[in-house]
Write a structure and sequence with these properties.
With 232 residues, the chain is an alpha+beta fold. It is built from 8 helices and 5 strands, in the order H-H-H-H-E-E-E-H-H-E-H-E-H. Strands 1-2-3-5-4 form a 5-stranded antiparallel beta sheet. Strand 2 and strand 3 form a beta hairpin. It is globular and about 60 Å long.
């Protein structure tokens, strides 16, 4: 049977949301390891098998894809030590863990999120994607408009610029896409969907639909000259 989580995993996440401190977490760390970390690592391995068919450059060892549940509070005014969700990012080979375009999954006490695209591209990657879209915006639009994809996932609603970035024309037919800071699609399902045997299929079927978008964005990033060429 495909990996999925138990109701105990959601119970743990609900408790962590209410009691985000070490005094609560440490006595329950064994529950975290058993009910969240172990099944998540197993799930990543199963997703990897599916990715091998349509996104082989994103297959990574499970522990390399898994985000730590511990927050880095060194430079934050929010000193809560733990994240309220448990997440995975399948980056493209050769790219930093959170950069480029990739595939994402997270589980929290309130939702299950499945997403794909470029969510936190590095500055030079952001520029490369924008430059690529000047001439290839129609290709991305066609992918985003796919009937099956639109039935399963919606476009990112991230922050957009209010004016063209330096070097880009306000008259460009790609302007609406160039104003974006991130590109991709996501689906938000009930948290309880992570406790069902259909979880693996829910994830991999959406990843497969979104894979052409991920590949297009990474192609933009990897093309020579687009990151460092002179401004338009």
């Amino acid at each position: 049977m495909p990996t999925h989580f138990t109701p105990e995993a959601l119970k743990f996440l609900r408790g962590l949301k209410r009691h985000n401190d070490r005094a609560w977490f440490e006595p329950r760390k064994a529950i975290y390891e058993l009910e969240l970390k172990a099944p998540m690592l197993a799930l990543i391995e199963e997703v990897n098998h599916a990715l091998a068919d349509f996104a082989p450059d994103h297959v990574r060892p499970p522990h390399k894809s898994l985000f730590r549940i511990y927050r880095d509070t060194r430079f934050s005014s929010d000193k809560r030590p733990y994240k309220s969700h448990f997440a995975v990012w399948w980056a493209c080979a050769g790219m930093e863990k959170t950069s480029g375009a990739g595939f994402y999954f997270h589980l929290s006490s309130t939702e299950t999120v499945i997403a794909a695209g470029a969510y936190m591209p590095a500055p030079e990657q952001l520029l490369a994607i924008r430059r690529y879209l000047v001439d290839h915006h129609a290709e991305l639009r066609a992918l985003l408009a796919g009937r099956k994809l639109r039935a399963a996932m919606g476009e990112f609603e991230g922050n957009r610029l209010t004016r063209p970035p330096r070097g880009f024309s306000a008259d460009s037919p790609a302007l609406d896409l160039i104003l974006c800071r991130q590109w991709g699609v996501s689906a938000t399902l009930p948290a309880e969907s992570a406790t069902r045997p259909t979880l693996l299929r829910d994830i991999t079927s959406r990843f497969a639909l979104a894979a052409p978008i991920v590949h297009l964005l990474n192609r933009a990033i990897s093309l020579p000259g687009l990151q460092n060429s002179p401004e338009y």
